[in-house]
Amino acid sequence: MPTIPETFSLALQHHQAGRLPEAEAMYRQVLQAQPDHADALHLLGVIAYQVGRHQAAVDLIGRAIGLNPAAPEYHNNIGEVYRTLGKLEEALAHFRQAIAHRPSMPEAHNNAGNIFMEQGNLEEAIACYQRALALNPNYAQAHTNLGSALCEQGELEPAMAHFREALRVEPGRALWRVRMEALAPAVISDMEATGKTRGRIEKALDDFPAIDLDRRLTELSTIDAFPSFYLAYQGRNERPLRTKFARLFSTSTTAAQHARSPGAPHVGFVVTAKHETAFLTFMRGVINNLSREFRITIICPASALARVRSEIERREVELLGMSRSIAEGIERIRAARCDLLYHWEIGTDNTNYFLPFFGLAPVQCTSWGYPVTSGIPRVDYFISSALFEPDNAKDHYSEELIQFAVLPTYYYRPQAPVSPKDRGSFGLPEKNHLYVCPQSLYKFHPDFDGVMEGILRADPDGLIVLLEGARPKWTELLLKRLQAALPDVVQRIRFVSRLASGEFMHLLAVADVMLDPLHWSGGSTSLQALSLGLPVVTLPGEFMRGRVTYGCYRQMGLMDCVASTTGEYVDIAVRLGADSAWREQVKAKILAANHVLFENMQAVGAFERFFREAIAKS
User: Fold this and answer.
1) Residue 4: what pLDDT?
2) What is the structure's pLDDT at 1?
3) Residue 381 contacts residue 614 (beta carbons within 8 Å)
4) Please, where are the H alpha helices in 249-405?
5) Hey, which residues does 527 pair with through a beta bridge?
6) CA 335, chain centre distance (Å)
7) Dihedral, CA atoms, 494, 123, 307, 284, nearest 10 degrees?
8) CA distance readout (Å), 500 to 374, 497, 507
9) C-alpha distances in angstroms, 120 versus 124, 149, 221, 324, 471?
10) Contact 254, 214 (CB under 8 A)
11) DSSP state, 377?
12) In angstroms, rounded to a whole number, what is the distance separating the alpha carbons of residues 432 and 428?
């Protein structure tokens, strides 16, 4: 009979060769003979993690830590499990423990960097990746992570250099090459640079061989290989590029088809990590009011289950938790046997981009969570509104375009501030005319610079108020561009700190006018502003994503703040800012008409009709 060390050694060999069932059986043999064998507990937990049994992994590795709290590998691996579960603080605490016990462990520094990256702390993430590379210059994963972080900082060439170094070390990583070639900066420096970026991506897509997703499922959970989130903010028709991008990927997995059961049509809503707030803002009213003829499942991160449950009033709505593992998500969603999957966003993270490729329901659709076409052949429909779309809208989508007659949301009326704050609370003067544009900084296309310049030149008492970027570097990059484009008036563009959701309405309440960016208009921000009667000046763009505020005005039947040229945009904005009597007239009109934007059961009815017809057609 083999000894415990011999059995453990054989288990390790099986584990390293990828024979997980054999390795698991032998680790259990070791534990039967020696229940306090910490390494066997730890590696049994690693296998549990590898096969998607995440809570079992936490329990097993946690027991190993109890036996040997100074083992850095244990802390590093349980940190990875917690990160997969979306428990970022617990993960970071264990990565720090690993570093404390072994400062020379590059993996722990890299993993800590991943947590800081997810939390939006780019500077600390970059420092962690650099420490990992100082310990191991050939650490390919750390090079790709540092490359992604540098791209977020706007440092595109250094970012690509790190990806090239990663590919030098591990040349077979096709998804890394895709990620490198798809990089695009968050804040546009100038349109010439944007043209070069898109040209580089188009050429790379022509040269790439096809990638079999079935063979890359494990990698997909660790490598971002979707089209850059920021490409859609460059003001171009995204359909050609995204269709070409989607053609890179193939899967032999058959799209889900199942006989309709005699029960209720089953609609699943898919929302991935960090997108729960927007999903609940736009869709919880629809879900709460849908006909009981539909069975509803919301598929969301396990870490968001409690939050989602608290905001969905219908107790019969089922919730299905997902980890970060795309392979596990595919299995769980397919097992749910939905008749239709509504993907809240496609293309804002790796998970929501790649899940639709696997055809996890007979019908798949998406909508304005990320208001550009997916380009993915297995996504059947894109839900929009005739209020938003231009005449040639079908040319912008690879999906069949569905145009509701109303806004595609049941949006609960926002709560107006009970005790509004004054301008001084935001460090803003009382005497100036305040033009707020409280949008993410990647929405500021260079074409909008001239509009802001025109407003400031026409109104010497005007101040334009922007929010600081989610990444501090973004504020620096935008300010640098504005200083070059409008040097003599840029001092009247003020940045205020990013605000908690409750503070945001207070800022709108002290503004005179809200400015809608060119090419990508406000969505929730415009609805919040209009709920207060705050005039929002807009110029409808070429694509739906630049026409949402315009659609709100069309639903209200008001066109006072809708411009047809940039010159008219400036004129409307300045008149609203400087002429308080006219501003009050416009505000009164908005307040009298804005009820049609909120809690609109016509939108719910439109969703019901679409779900019935799409499921019946399938």
Assistant:
1) 87
2) 67
3) yes
4) 276-289, 305-311, 326-336, 350-354
5) none
6) 25
7) 50
8) 31, 10, 11
9) 9, 10, 19, 18, 7
10) no
11) T
12) 9
Residue with tokens 């009970």: 418
* Token pair of 122 as six digits: 């780019």
Residue 508 and residue 438 in contact, taking contact as beta carbons nearer than 8 Å: yes
What averages of pLDDT result for each successive group of 10 residues across the chain (618 residues)?
Answer: 86 89 91 93 92 90 96 96 90 97 97 93 96 98 95 91 96 92 91 89 90 89 90 96 95 78 89 95 97 96 92 94 87 95 97 96 97 98 98 97 98 93 94 97 97 98 96 93 96 93 91 98 97 98 98 98 98 98 98 98 98 95
- Matching residue, tokens 């780019």: 122
Q: Could you tell me if 517 and 547 are in contact, meaning their C-beta atoms sit under 8 angstroms apart?
A: no
Residues 566/570/576/582 CA torsion (nearest 10 deg): -70
Output the pLDDT for position 618. 86
Structure tokens at 384: 């929009």
Amino acid at position 494, single letter: R
CB contact at 8 A, 238 and 232 = yes
- 72 CB-near residues (< 8 Å, 6+ apart): 97, 98, 99, 101, 102, 105, 108
Cβ neighbours of residue 287 under 8 Å, at least 6 residues apart?
Answer: 269, 296, 298, 312, 314, 317
**Crossing angle for the helix pair 38-50 and 72-84, nearest 10 degrees?**
20
State the SS3 of 83-104: HHCCCHHHHHHHHHHHHHHCCC
Characterize the bridge pairing of strands 295-301 and 318-322.
parallel
Largest CA distance in the chain: 94
Phi, psi for 548 (deg, rounded to 5): -70, -45
Amino acid at 412: Y
Structure tokens of 12?
Answer: 């390790």
Q: Which residue has the tokens 């029960």?
A: 263
Question: Which residues make Cβ contacts (< 8 Å) with residue 91, sequence separation at least 6?
Answer: 79, 80, 81, 82, 83, 111, 115
Nearest Cα residue to 144 out of 128, 160, 132? 160
174-181 vs 140-152: helix axis angle to the nearest 10?
20
Nearest-angstrom CA–CA distance, 323 and 109: 23
Residues 86, 304 contacting (CB under 8 angstroms) = yes
As a whole number of angstroms, the distance between CA 328 and CA 217 comes to 9
Backbone angles phi, psi at 434, to 5 degrees: -100, 120
Residues 6 or more apart from 418 whose CB is under 8 A from it? none
Compute the distance between CA of residue 609 and CA of residue 26 in angstroms, rounded to an integer.
Answer: 56
- Spatial separation of the C-alpha atoms in residues 12 and 21, rounded to whole Å: 12
Where do we find the tokens 């049609």?
Answer: 596
Query: What single-letter amino acid sits at 542?
Result: E
Q: Using DSSP, state whether 249 is helix, strand or coil.
A: strand
The DSSP call for residue 3 is: -
Amino acid, res. 372: V
Q: List the alpha helices (DSSP H) in 17-155.
A: 20-33, 38-50, 54-67, 72-84, 88-101, 106-118, 122-135, 140-152
DSSP annotation of 413: P
- The structure's pTM equals 0.91
Q: By the 8 A CB rule, do 571 and 451 touch?
A: no
C-beta neighbour count of 328 within 10 angstroms: 18
- Contact between residue 220 and residue 350 where contact means Cβ atoms under 8 Å apart: yes
Residue-wise DSSP of 516-574: PPSSS--SHHHHHHHHTT--EEB---SSGGG-HHHHHHHHHT--TTB-SSHHHHHHHHH
- Three-state DSSP class for residue 589: helix
